[in-house]
Write a structure and sequence with these properties.
Layout: E1 3-12, E2 15-16, H1 18-26, E3 32-33, E4 47-48, H2 54-61, H3 71-87, E5 95-100, H4 106-118, H5 125-128, H6 133-144, E6 150-153, H7 159-172, E7 178-185, H8 189-197, E8 221-229, E9 238-247, H9 260-273, E10 282-284, H10 291-305, E11 312-313, H11 316-319, H12 326-340, E12 342-343, E13 365-366, E14 372-379, E15 383-390
Parallel strand pairs: 5-6, 5-7, 10-11, 10-14
Antiparallel strand pairs: 1-2, 1-8, 1-9, 3-4, 7-8, 9-15, 12-13, 14-15
Helix pairs in contact: 2-3, 3-6, 7-12, 9-10
């Protein structure tokens, strides 16, 4: 059974919707700003923030301004709505939703605690009810009319890639007829503080795979794809041909020096797809811009591809690292690149990592025949996932 991508939807710092993203990328315009404007924080760090307030997002969804909804759920609903419309799908019957998040409703919860800690009789408890990760999934499903199988995945930054795998398996095993898969995460003070404590945030726009890389920029966004059986779709974006999840069990927050998890995930995903490494047209690397990730992922690519590493780039210079949503946003990018014959560039790159000698794609490429694309998403705890798209 072939599983294909029939629709996509995306929201990030580049804007709302596919067209806004293609326009920004063609113009070489990054969504990373010098400091947050919507997020309330004392930190002055570059972030990939969608410059629309929650009220503005609610207005786009036709919701009253006084409705209590997490930003994570709002971003997700916009992307899911676009993906369903793009697929021309009415979400009735056995349509599933596999949604990933790590932040959940933290953006509401952290605002609840300030007044609550001052006086335990104060604070709006209705805000806390959306704290759980599954709350955003259920709200998005209700908002978009999805009544079939629903589940939530939270495996750090590999979450949305794992959502793609889960959705494909649900279709293969007849649990659902089609499935909306992806992830959503909003910026929050909690995550910004957490990553700052790890000392892996760059004070400048991130430089993935550059010798001078100094860390990542956090971002927010949502990316979802509609998966269906090939015989039910007339003009799909691409086929979801392979996928794999492996864990290098190396460290809570660092990848192994040998790139074990990344290597095994890419190798097994290609084996599932029935594709040899030398047939890969492009790799959308995880490419966070941290010293550890980029070196580890580069070592893994050298192990798998040898001296014939295919064209690759990290798109996080455009969006920032959207955490659990990254695998969804970048799967949407992969599908768009295949449909439009494009390779998105790796922004801010100047110098290859000395021990790897790998140079990513630095300029937008158009008119490219992409037959096979690998998209990588690697999370804390060594949770490494790769998905393979083919024409």
């Amino acid at each position: 059974m072939q599983i294909v991508v029939s629709g996509v939807g995306v929201v990030s710092a580049l804007g709302v919707g596919v067209e806004a993203h293609l326009e920004a990328i063609r113009a070489g315009r990054s969504g990373i700003s010098k400091e947050p404007s919507v997020l309330r924080t004392t930190h002055r760090l570059p972030v990939g923030e969608l410059r629309l307030t929650n009220d503005a997002l609610k207005e786009q969804l036709g919701l009253p301004a006084d409705q209590t909804v997490s930003r994570t759920a709002l971003l997700g609903a916009l992307a899911v709505r676009e993906a369903l419309a793009d697929a021309g799908l009415q979400p009735h019957g056995r349509v599933g939703l596999v949604s990933a998040t790590s932040v959940g409703g933290m953006d509401l919860t952290e605002h609840f605690f300030a007044p609550f800690m001052a006086d335990d009789r104060s604070g709006r408890l209705r805000a806390v009810k959306m704290h759980d990760c599954a709350a955003s999934t259920e709200w998005i499903a209700a908002q978009c009319g999805i009544t079939g199988y629903r589940t939530t995945i939270s495996t750090a930054c590999s979450s949305a890639a794992n959502a793609l795998m889960t959705g494909a398996r649900l279709i293969r095993h007849g649990v659902v007829d089609c499935c909306v898969v992806g992830g959503t995460d909003a910026l929050s003070a909690f995550t910004l503080n957490g990553f700052k404590s790890l000392m892996i945030l760059d004070s400048e726009p991130c430089r993935p795979f550059d010798e001078g890389r100094a860390g990542l920029n956090l971002g927010e966004g949502a990316g979802y794809l509609v998966l269906q059986r090939a015989e039910e779709v007339e003009n799909p974006y691409c086929t979801l041909a392979g996928y794999a999840n492996r864990n290098d069990a190396h460290h809570q927050t660092a990848s192994s020096e040998q790139g074990n998890g990344a290597f095994l995930a890419m190798q097994e995903a290609l084996q599932v797809a029935g594709v040899e490494p030398d047939a890969v047209s492009y790799v959308n690397v995880h490419g966070t811009g941290t010293a550890n990730n980029d070196r580890s992922e580069g070592v893994a690519m050298r192990r798998l591809f040898g001296d014939r590493v295919p064209p690759f780039s990290s798109t996080k210079g455009f969006t920032g690292h959207t955490l659990a949503a990254a695998g969804g946003v970048e799967a949407v990018f992969s599908a768009l690149m295949m449909r439009h014959g494009m390779i998105f560039p790796n922004l801010h790159f100047t110098t290859p990592i000395a021990e790897l000698g790998l140079t990513p794609v630095q300029q937008l490429c158009e008119g490219v025949d992409l037959r096979c694309v690998v998209s990588n998403s690697f999370g804390f705890g060594g949770n490494c996932s790769s998905v393979v798209f083919t024409k």
